[in-house]
Amino acid sequence: MALKSTIYKASLQIADMDRGYYADHALTIARHPSETDERMMVRVLAFALNASESMVFAKGLSDEDEPALWQKDLTGAIEKWIEVGQPDDRRLMKACGRSPVVLVYSYGSASAIWWKQIAGKLERARNLSVLQVPVEASTQLAALAQRTMQLQCTIQDGQVWLGDGESVAQIELTTLKLATGQR
After folding, report:
1. From CA 168, how far away is CA 152, in angstroms rounded?
2. In the beta sheet, which residues pair with residue 130?
3. What are the C-alpha distances in Å from 94 to residues 40, 63, 71?
4. Helix crossing, 135-143 with 37-50: angle to 10°?
5. Direct distance between the N- and C-terminal alpha carbons of the chain, in angstroms, rounded to an integer
6. What angle do CA 106, 48, 57 make, to 5 degrees?
7. What is the CATH number of the domain that holds 52?
8. Global pTM?
9. Structural domain containing residue 102
């Protein structure tokens, strides 16, 4: 019998001064049995950094044809495809063909090695951006994981603070690859 996902609930308040986006989101997060707290919380971070009314958690680990998160327009066309972790180059090139914007939030101690091995294969992916979450930050994020969470996220001048009122993870992402035309 297959193990079922564990459901986490988060109330997420976002104040993104860089984008001028201020909103509260009630998130239901299905954590796959093989997923760690660290990966789940990096997904929450990716949501906060790209939040919109149409951004949702996709099946991700449960379905290889879906990313960790995505945003679709009213017709169902994919507008933004977001991966978390270290996906392979074939998966990313396929995503770049399906979505005008593809983002990867890489994390963990093997992140730099993964990028060194894969970077050359992704040079022609003009709509791909790859961002790295520092190891210390992803560890701090993992410590915030609880079945029910009240989270606040502030984004200003490229700095991110994500906390629960008691602990705060300060995150400064490293850009490994920027999509053509992005800044």
Report:
1. 9
2. 104, 177
3. 23, 14, 16
4. 100
5. 47
6. 75
7. 3.10.640.10
8. 0.94
9. 6-177
Q: 164 with 139: CB under 8 angstroms?
A: no
Please report the sign of the dihedral spanned by the C-alpha atoms of residue 159, residue 170, residue 12, residue 40: positive
Pairing of strands 168-172, 174-177: unpaired
Side chain identity at residue 129, one-letter code: S
Report yes or no on 116 lying in a domain.
Answer: yes
List per-residue pLDDT tens for the chain, 183 residues long.
Answer: 567 889 999 999 999 999 999 999 999 999 988 899 999 999 999 999 999 999 999 876 556 778 999 999 999 999 999 999 999 999 999 999 999 999 999 999 999 999 999 999 999 999 999 999 999 999 999 999 999 999 999 999 999 999 999 999 999 999 999 998 665
Q: Domain tally for the chain?
A: 1
